[in-house]
Amino acid sequence: MKALSHQLKTTLRLFQSPLSQRIIAGMFVSLVVIEAILLVPSVQRRRAELLDQIEDVSIGKVRWIVTTYPTADGEELAAHLQQLQRDPMLQGILGGTVYDAAGNLVATFGEPPQLTTANARQDRRQLFTTAAGRRYDIAWTTAGIGEGMLSELNDNHWIVLRHNADATQRALMFYMLRIAGLVLLIAAFITLVMLLLLSRLLITPILTLRQDLSLAGETVARDDSAPKFASLRYRRRDELGEVIATFHQMYGQICAEIGDRKRAESTLRHHNRSMQQYIEQVDKVTAAATAVDAGTFVPDQLDAVAQRNDELGQLARMFQHMAASVERRETQLKQQLKELTIEIDQGKLQKQVAQITESDYFQELQSELKHLQVDEFWQS
User: Which domain holds residue 318?
Assistant: First the structure.
């Protein structure tokens, strides 16, 4: 049941495929056109056969009359021929005319034929379409009736019989319908067989390849791993096999290019991160220089930069060494300045003391103190 359902779905999918529809339509129309071309001569042959059947039935009776009454004149021939209308086997005879050898009308009966002796010399059998229906006129001469051709003898009579060809037309239409039905049946059968054959050799592989193309696009878009393509099961040595092989080769090249692009993007991102870190560390060195100028530099700020093994790391180490040297010198200078300041202050004090002690006022006070008695000072 599942296999039947799968086969039914596959068949419906084939009929829904635009390519299948075009192949079916083209093949069916081609077969019908070919059969129609072959049908035209077949219909003409069948029409000739039906008309020959009419003549075969009539010529036997006419030959019998001519043979039985060899000396009959034109009116007697017309009378005997008129009796043929009442023959059940000759219900198709509607009328006739008899002409003499000069082509003059001698007698007529029933529905008169349109074929004249002048026209009969060119074609003794002619088909006419009238308001009453299709009519078939046949002409003979009494001398050449058994030969199937017109005689040029002047003592002959011309016999022209009119036949009802409506039955022939109906039989021809039935024949055409029967042949057309057979043609359509053959065309449908061949188309179905070719469709099943093409579905196995062409349509199904193409639909499978289309699904693989869609799957490949989705896989590339989602950046997934390579899927297992169903078209790989077709091992063909034709153009379609080359297309399938080219598709898988192209997909492999695309995946390889995508892998190379990913690696290049990863390398570029790594370089960008390295460059960003480098710039950040350069900014740290620049900020350290500013901090040194402001007197707020901390050597530990450049430890991460100093660990680098390139020129920037060497610059950071030199900067730390330089900053440490500057700091030591600055400390020494401050200490020296402090000591120099103390020495300057003591010298200035001694100078000031010397200036006081060497002044006249201080000398006078010192002289007075020497002469001044202490007891007198306390008594006073």
Answer: 304-357
